[in-house]
Amino acid sequence: MTLNDLSKYKDSYLSEAREHVVSMNSALLKLEKEPQKIELVSVLFRDVHTLKSMAATMNYNNTARLCHAIEDVLDAVKKKRIKTQSCVDTLFRCFDILELSLREISNNREDPDTAALVEKLNSLNAIDESKITGKETFDDLENEAGDVKLPVMEKIKTIEVKVEKLDLLMNLTEELLINKMRLDRIKETIRHPELKAAVDIMERQVTEIQYNVMQARMVPVSFVFNRFLRLIRDLAKSQKKEIKLEMDGTDIELDRGVIDEIGESLVHLIKNAVDHGLETPDVRRESGKPPQGTIRLTARRNKRLVVIEVSDDGTGMDIGEIKKNALKLGVISEDATDEDIINSVFSGVSTTKHVTHVSGRGFGVNIVKEKIESIGGSIKIVNADMQAGKRRFSELNYSPISAGTKFVIEIPLTIAIIKSLFVNVSGRLYAVPVVNVTRLVTVSSEEIKGMLSYEAIIIDEEEIPLTRLDVLFRKTPSRHEKQHVAIVRKGEELLGLAVDSFMGTQEIVVKPLNRLLKENKYFAGSTIIGSGDVVLILDVNNLMLTKRTLTDTEGRQIDEG
Predict the structure, then answer these.
(1) For residue 468, which of 117, 290, 312, 347 sits 20 to 30 Å off, Cα-Cα?
(2) Contacts of 544 (CB under 8 A, 6+ apart)
């Protein structure tokens, strides 16, 4: 890893290193007063050892060498080759130099040379304790280490904040946002220039507060990804497989709430890759593959979404076997596309012939899909023998069925505050997350085509199924010469939502649904607008299931089945 790669971890290093230095000073003060408490030496040793490892990782070699020399002295104290009193002043001076090192690094300078200190510690460790006094050691150190300033109080730049406090700040920000919307309505009613100026200033301030609170809640995906190194190592060992983990895009940041939600989902997918996707070394050699399999985790930004991919270079999914099992379960029809077949695994279809302690019952990916969609995301599978994978894997001379599987997950950056499009349906407002909206169009009634079992519009030579929200929500149907349609996307699927009018976009605070509405699959949450009214947020993922619905001219809903 290059220095540029390490620089992004500098702030984390400085924050944690300062905690260790403070702990070391505290432990040494107690040890000085109670030298018989040898357990305090162990506390010191742990802090010094951790700091040494961190410094070595960051290539702060002067700091790492000093910590190593301190470890040797502490080991001598623990083994009673050196009296505690004879090295306390020396150790305090070393801790001062460590503090100086952190200040230098924080100011983008190199950590100071510690060669003289290291030499002094080595000589201290070698000299018979009866010939050493604390005063003598301290004075010698002053002369050999040069003109070192006594420690000064440094301004605190970073602190740890409990997650509960960040959640409280987010809740307060949400309340501010709701009140700001109320003031916007009052401003439009009263139309006083001073009120307008005050509300406009408040709007900018609330936006800035909201941005900074959300930034404080952002966590890099490496927070989750790095946990899988040990998981994959242990699983590979238990399965007698050779597996390496590759990661990319680990600096992409997500809201802590999203990170919490996706962790278990990724564990499911990785377990499946290890247990069923990747082969043993002998099998891989017979297939012309390297004996070591690869699981790859990648993250990237795509507008307001983060795309996470979990892929492996294992056996892939046997579409023929999946289709056979899916037909038995009645999940798909005979004319199902490859995409429909492979995504039937999300309905509990499995080709695994045995169950292990790791996976194999066919319910894991179904749980993953439900969890991802519960936070407004989507998931799809790209198998090696589908068109996108054939080209890539043919270059590696792999047969289609042995070229691996990729899960592609799209999730929002945050689930707390989202930008939404407000639409009017039979006199009632609904919110559609902007992240799902690809286009707003207005079509004439003649452009709406009646298909065999649903309605559709043709946009740029592409057929887009149409769902009339007034019929879906059992409202009074309305027909217009010009029909407003919001085209929404879930993965590669498109759906047109027919509405009465578009009412503009606005950032909203997502609130969970109450118990009565949770059973309605068409809503993902609710929000409160400036008037105090509750607006329901549409669940685009579940609305996609309505695309096979036909509406007749009288506005009656006819289901395909």
Answers:
(1) 347
(2) 490, 493, 495
What φ, ψ does residue 317 adopt, rounded to 5°? -105, 135
Place of tokens 């070192």: 148
Dihedrals φ, ψ of 98, to 5°? -65, -40
Backbone angles phi, psi at 419, to 5 degrees: -90, 130
pLDDT on residue 5? 58
Distance, in Å, from the CA atom of 365 to the CA atom of 339, rounded to the nearest integer, reads 16
Both tokens of residue 490? 């879930």
Q: Please give the C-alpha separations between residue 395 and each of 281, 392, 404, 426, in angstroms, as whole numbers.
A: 21, 6, 14, 55
Which residues make Cβ contacts (< 8 Å) with residue 96, sequence separation at least 6? 148, 150, 151
* Structural domains of the chain ordered from first start: 3-145 (1.20.120.160), 163-217 (1.10.287), 221-412 (3.30.565.10), 417-559 (2.40.50.180)
**E strand residue ranges, 303-341:** 305-312
Structure tokens at 421: 């499009």
Question: Which residue type is seen at 306?
Answer: V
Q: What's the rounded Cα separation, in Å, for the pair 118 and 124?
A: 10
CA gap 35, 26 in Å, rounded: 14
CA–CA separation, 313 and 403 (whole Å): 5
- pLDDT at position 559 is 38
Residue type, 268: H
**Amino acid present at 343:** N
Burial class (CB in 10 A: 0-12, 13-18, 19+), 288: exposed
Instruction: Return the structure tokens found at 51.
Output: 């700091």
CA distances from 528 to 209, 213, 323, 431, 546 (A): 19, 20, 45, 11, 27
3-state secondary structure at position 363? coil
Cα separation values, 321 from 21, 283, 327, 334, 344, Å: 60, 20, 10, 13, 12
- Report in angstroms the alpha-carbon separations of 233 from 279, 293, 438: 15, 12, 41
Asked if 311 and 407 count as a contact pair (C-beta separation under 8 A), the reply is yes
Chain position carrying tokens 């966590």:
219
Residue-level pLDDT at 550: 40
Work out whether the CA dihedral 328, 333, 335, 337 comes out positive or negative. Answer: negative
pLDDT at 516: 63
Per the structure block, which two tokens stand in for 44? 């010191």
Beta strand 428-433 pairing with 534-538: parallel
pTM to 2 decimal places = 0.64
Phi-psi region of 397 (alpha: psi -120 to 50; beta: other; left: phi over 0): left
Q: What is the mean pLDDT of each run of 10 residues along the chain (561 residues)?
A: 62 85 90 87 91 88 92 88 84 90 88 88 71 44 44 62 83 84 86 90 88 85 85 88 91 85 88 88 90 93 86 86 85 81 80 53 71 84 55 35 78 81 92 90 86 82 89 79 88 87 85 68 82 85 66 39 29
Helix locations, 146-219, DSSP H = 163-190, 193-217
- Alpha-carbon distance of 31 to 40, in angstroms, equals 6
Position 283: which residue type? V
Please report the pLDDT score of residue 551 as a whole number: 43
Distance CA(475)–CA(72), nearest Å, equals 79
